[in-house]
Specification:
- It is built from 7 helices and 7 strands; from the N terminus they run βαβααβββαβααβα.
- The chain has a 5-stranded parallel beta sheet with strand order 2-5-1-6-7, with helices on both faces. A two-stranded antiparallel ribbon has the order 3-4.
- α1 packs across α7 and α5 crosses α6.
- The longest helix has 23 residues.
- It is globular.
- The protein starts with a strand and ends with a helix.
Length: about 200
Amino acid sequence: MLIIGIAGGTGSGKTTVVNKIINSLPPGEVALLPQDSYYKDSSHVPMEERSKINFDEPAAIEWPLLVEHIKALKEGKAIEMPTYSYLTCTRQTETVRVEPREVVIVEGILVLTDPVLRNMLDVKVFVDAEADERLIRVIARDCVERGRTPQMVLDRYTDVLKPMHEMYIAPSKKTADLIVPQGGSNVVAIQLLTDYIESRLRKK
């Protein structure tokens, strides 16, 4: 099993990179574990307080559960991956069954910040993009998918996203084996990564 961590700032193009890798490999070859599925449950927090939770720091993630699930997949066991709602900021009762696959991709902004998880990764990737490009994508995404207004997104960017990126996410770039500049539009870097994955799989 090949375990790949793909990190990068919010709106950097991580999902695009992940999708291109998955689509280039044979169907059923990849299991995807989004970091966002492992946000700690906030259902015990009053609704008006949930909007103030900082989701861009490592403390927001239930790392032990994510590590436990990766270990289970390595042992050939299926897992029940949690699901999370951005609208209510709570973990859902539904889970997603994930079967062991030849390639496991763990994707999220903070994936390279946790030392225990980082040591489990065979390949560490950081998807990079200019701050203004990331902000434009975040505004477009959050207004459509997460019910926020442009002003809400801008306020959150100034108060949370930018300082957390500088404190946690950007420094994690130095731990990466491969940095993909220009986000999901970097065809050459994505092809090199895909070729490497395929070569590793052929050796197994």
